[in-house]
Structures are given as C-alpha cells and as structure tokens.
Design brief:
372 residues; alpha/beta; TIM Barrel; eight-stranded mixed β-sheet; eight-stranded parallel β-sheet; 16 strands
Length: 372
C-alpha cells in the first residue's frame, strides 16, 4: 500500500542523531513545496514524487506537516477506577486515546503505580494498545508510601518478588520506573529495583520527586537508564554527568503550573547540548494538564525554549525518552509514518496561537486516524 501526501507547504522535522542532528542545537529542517510517499506504514521518499506511484493521494493543501507528537509521561489514573466495570474502563480509556490523536499525539507513555490493581491496569493498557492509536508504551511505576516504613519495605519486596516477575511473564509493560526523592525510594532501594527489572528484560526509567532530582540523575547515569522525569532545576555536576551517558531528561512543566512551584531552569541543560523532552504528567494529580499544545505553550513562555526546541522536545526527544528514537519522532526515509497535517501554512504561526490545537490530520503507521 502506497500513500502519497502532496502539496505540502512546509515539511518541518528535527534531525535524528543518525542523520547528523545534535539534539536541540540542530535547527528544524524545513522543506517547502514538497511531497511525501508512504509505503507499508513507513516513509519511502520525500521530495518531488510522481503521483502515479501511489495507491492513494492526500492533498495537504499547502499546509504544514510535522512529525506526530509524543508524550512520554502520562498516568491516566482516572480511567482505572476499580469500582467501574471493565467495559466502562475500556471505553473511557479509548475515549481518552481518541482525544489524544485529535491533538496530534501518536505515541504516549503511560505509568501504572504498583498496587493491588496494577496488573488489571496494565492488562487494560495492553488490550487497548492492540490495533488502537496512539501507540501505548507502558511502565510499571514504583513509588512506596514513606508515611508507613513497614508498608514501604513490603512494597520493595513486592516489586522485586512479585510485580516485576509478573510483568515480565505476562509482557504487560516495556519499562520499570522508580520514583526517588522525598516520597519515593532511596538510592539503594531504587538501584535494587532497577537491577531486578533489567534482569527481567525491562527497560529502565527514573522519576524524581521533590528534592531528589540530583540523586535521580546520578542513579540514571550509573545504570544508563533511558530517561529521567523531573520538574526541578538540576545542579551543574548532574548536567555534566548526563553529558557522558545516553539518558534523556524529561521535564514536566505542567506540574509547577498547577501547584505554583517554581519552574525549572532548563537553559543550562540545553546549552550543554542535552536532548530535553517534555511530558504532560497528566493524571499525576488533580487538577492536571492533558493538552500537549498547552504544554508547548508552557515550554515557550515559562521554560524560555525556542519554538525549534519545544517542537523537537515534543517529537524526537520524547521519542528517545521512550526508546523509540530510531523509529519515530522525525520525518525521515525508513521511519514509521507518524505525522500530522496542521491548519497553518507556516509553522511559526504557532507562536501567535499558543495552546490552540491546530491539527487537521493525524497519521500513525501511515494510516489516517483523525481527520477534520
């Protein structure tokens, strides 16, 4: 099956490392008056392409085409209420995923906290992820209750002795995510859990709570985890440590926006060449921010990111934070055809309409999953 997108006013994409990009410092590549050919769900060609080569044609009408957006940090707890029937929970989750595709999201990372219902939650995600969009990358989240030390010790034993082996056997998640800091695990506990998860074949993530960002970054560098989620300003030694390893920092600007805490200063990370991703943190608390376009607005106004940096953070860098940087996040030959067509003819117009959803068409694996 070949699909040709014609009459693209601007094809806007970050450059991946494989193609010579260097994180945030690589300017967005902009191709004008271009076409894009998709074959079997992947990008086959970009540029001047003959119409007769395609089975179907989609006219972009001179508008902007961007890679699909990626949110590496959701919780979705609202849709896992144990008092709800399974069918209702499934319907609510699918409705949330449908709203995500309408905003241009093509991949979401969803965290499920280890609890008595975690296997049901992960099973629901696994079932929802079969053939639905956006694609789901699930994480088993470890965050013990520090108010009860005995319960915290039991939680640690449960993670290593029960939760991780069950997730491995039933293939319920791709990642294990450990929360460090004031309300999370100690460094020693986090190290033990992550090593057990790696032994079980899971990929690793770390999240920082409160003042634990530098501890989290230190452990992340030590174990070479995929990403670290946080919403505080890291110290200079932590930034230098991250430069030597392939760990993606995921900043959560919506959390300070909701609770009034100071926004982190991420300029030092960007200036050191780190590839910074952005996550909505939806569902971590109530209220929370679900709009990826609101997240981009916060990045521009509160984190002092440029438009190039913000778009790269929500596409390629976030794809890398989910271990998918070689497959999605940029528009390059050979990659999955995850993309969106906007209702604007110049991507810089996004600066004049902060927070508005400009998506006309969303495609995942070369298939139209949303169209106005």
């Amino acid at each position: 099956m070949k699909t040709l997108i014609t009459n693209i006013g601007q094809l806007v994409t970050p450059q991946s490392r494989e193609s010579g990009g260097i994180g945030h410092e690589a300017n967005l590549t902009i191709l004008k008056d271009s076409s894009l050919l998709i074959q079997n769900g992947r990008i086959a060609s970009i540029g001047a392409i003959r119409t007769e080569r395609a089975d179907e044609t989609l006219d972009a009408e001179g508008k902007v085409v961007l890679p699909g957006l990626v949110d590496p940090g959701c919780h979705f707890r609202t849709y896992f209420g144990t008092s709800l029937p399974d069918a209702t929970r499934q319907e609510l989750l699918l409705r949330a995923l449908d709203c995500a595709t309408q905003s241009g999201l093509t991949t979401v990372g969803v965290k499920c906290r280890e609890s008595s219902s975690v296997f049901d939650e992960l099973s629901l995600l696994k079932h929802a992820g079969r053939g639905s969009v956006p694609r789901i990358v699930a994480s088993l989240l470890c965050s013990p209750d520090r108010k009860d030390e005995k319960a915290a010790e039991s939680h640690l034993s449960s993670m290593i002795g029960r939760a991780i082996p069950t997730v491995r056997t039933r293939r319920l998640a791709q990642f294990c995510d450990v929360v460090l800091g004031d309300a999370g695990c100690s460094i020693a506990e986090g190290r033990a859990i992550l090593r057990a998860a790696r032994g079980a074949g899971l990929q690793l993530k770390v999240s920082a709570d409160g003042g634990g960002v530098d501890e989290a970054l230190r452990l992340a560098a030590e174990l070479d985890v995929t990403s670290v989620d946080f919403c505080a300003t890291p110290a200079a030694p932590s930034i230098e440590r991250l430069q030597s390893v392939d760990v993606v920092p995921v900043v959560l600007p919506a959390r300070p926006f909701v609770d009034g805490s100071p926004q982190p200063d991420i300029r030092p990370m960007l200036e050191h060449g780190l590839s910074v991703a952005l996550g909505t943190d939806q569902g971590h608390s109530t209220p929370s921010v679900s709009s990826i376009w609101m997240l981009i607005a916060l990045a521009l106004t509160q984190l002092r990111m440029t438009l190039d940096e913000a778009l790269t953070a929500c596409t390629y860098s976030s794809a890398r934070a989910l271990g998918l940087g070689s497959e999605i996040g940029t528009l390059e030959i050979g990659k999955k055809a995850d993309l969106m067509i906007l209702d604007i003819d110049d991507h810089r117009r996004l600066l004049d309409e902060l927070g508005r959803n400009p998506v006309r068409v969303t495609m995942v694996d070369g298939r139209v999953v949303h169209e106005l």
